[in-house]
Design goal:
Layout: E1 3-12, H1 16-27, E2 32-36, H2 43-46, H3 78-91, E3 96-98, E4 104-108, E5 111-116, E6 119-128, E7 135-136, E8 150-153, E9 168-171, H4 175-184, E10 190-193, H5 207-223, H6 229-240, H7 250-255, E11 259-261, E12 264-268, E13 271-274, E14 284-287, E15 291-292, E16 322-324, H8 341-353
Parallel strand pairs: 1-2, 1-6, 2-3, 6-16, 8-14, 9-10, 9-14, 10-11
Antiparallel strand pairs: 4-5, 5-6, 7-15, 12-13
Length: about 375
Amino acid sequence: MSTTERFDTVVVGAGQAGLATGYHLARLGIDFVLLDANEDIGGAWRKRWTSLRLFTPARYSGLPGWGFPAPAWSWPGKDDVADYLAAYAERFDLLVRTGVLVDRLSRHGDRFVAASGDRRFEADHVVVASGAYHCPQVPDFAAELDPAIVALHSSEYTDPTQLRDGGVLVVGAGNSGAEIALEVSATHPTWLSGPDVGRLPFHTGSVWDRLLTPPIWFLASRLLTVDTPIGRKVRPKMLTETSPLERVHPKDLAAAGVERVPRTVGVQGGAPAVEDGRVIDVSNVIWCTGFRPDLGWIELPILDDDGQPVHERGVVTSAPGLYLVGRHFLYSMTSALIGGVGRDAHYIAQRIAASPHRSAVPGVRG
């Protein structure tokens, strides 16, 4: 039997983007619920590889109303982030329903319907805060690998104990690939496949890092926005190109014995083949090839020809009442970061509060 609950606003996703949105909605007295597919708040972070740490220090990794509870120049681990998100929801008494995977979003009459199996959540407004990309992306030829090779996407990798004895090919030379390659090289011969993406001119945690991070953060959050000519110019590049290496630099990889090889372009005899014609004889392949967007569950005409949602600073003009938060460069270069998502969340919450289609709402929660 289906059940229906009604709210003024449904927020899909209770990660950093959803929680920041919930914080501002609560402050404005708006009736809302956050729906998250994970069984626990912060669950998406707990599933990442064990040694993962943030690339921004705690000083720049806080959500609105409560800074990250760690030394300012420390780099929290993935479980620290998960704990913080769970504590944040409790601290501000945000209504979160976990274990609810929204598989359809449609419109019936003048209200949206977010469906999760037989459960229905009706709302005047919906905020999609489920992250920019969540579907692991691997090349089609990955299926041709010898079944004896352990093949994992970075979303499945946790630590080197998952791997067989023998060599490891890490495909994708961005930050994730570099960090994982450095880690597995301590116990396995390791190759890192992909073009050089460049690097920052200083190491994370260095004196130069502490000196330069504040002005870089200011530029990324205030100058590189959709409101400035330079922001509009660099935005397409930021959305499509891999970020330069931050914590692990090429010399660190070389010192660890990681061999750089060109892009992986196919499979020969069950083994991965790279662009220069070599076949890499390994027992393990880790695909650090990123994620692709998946908004197919939104049954509304909001996508352009490239499958990207059309919006103005998170406001979906083709579907009044529908909003986006937490996507890469939604408004600024920091829009998808924990410390940068709060501004976008505040903007969207204010738009909802000013909407003429608001339902009657109770008082502020908490």
